[in-house]
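Q: Hi! First time doing this. I have a protein sequence and I read that you can turn it into a structure. Is that right? Here it is:
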Amino acid sequence: MFDTFFPDEYVASTYVIPFEKLYEEGYRGIIFDIDNTLVMHGAPADERAKKLFARLKELGFACCLLSNNQEPRVKMFNEDVQVHYIFNAHKPSTVNYEKAMELMGTDKNNTVFIGDQLFTDVWGAKRTGIRNILVKPIHPKEEIQIVLKRRLEKVVLHFYKRSKK
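A: Yes, that's right. Below is the predicted 3D structure, encoded as structure tokens:
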């Protein structure tokens, strides 16, 4: 029942993902959520994020930010990383995951999505048919609607972890 929401992978942080290995496996595009995936909620790109995007570009990845936030927030983050972006994405709708792949020139077979929420990020990626990696949120301070979703996520993640044993 819950497996609809199970991520393909679940890792501690975006910053521990072996991107070189993903490239070797044939992946060429990465779609990222921003808040609590790359930086704390509302924060600009920090040094760690800037270095990550420089490394990804050097490896040969195309990247796109996919956020449910409004344009000023997404544009502010993107000023220092300079990748494609889509704001007000309406995740988990599949429309903008597909648009992101179009912008990057990739497809479902060579694109991976990375985000911190099951019911928007992961579910949208799964519905689109692309590989997804769930990361633990960077910071616990979140808006009330996200806090409520996190409680439900804990239930799903409990069953996800049990299924991996």
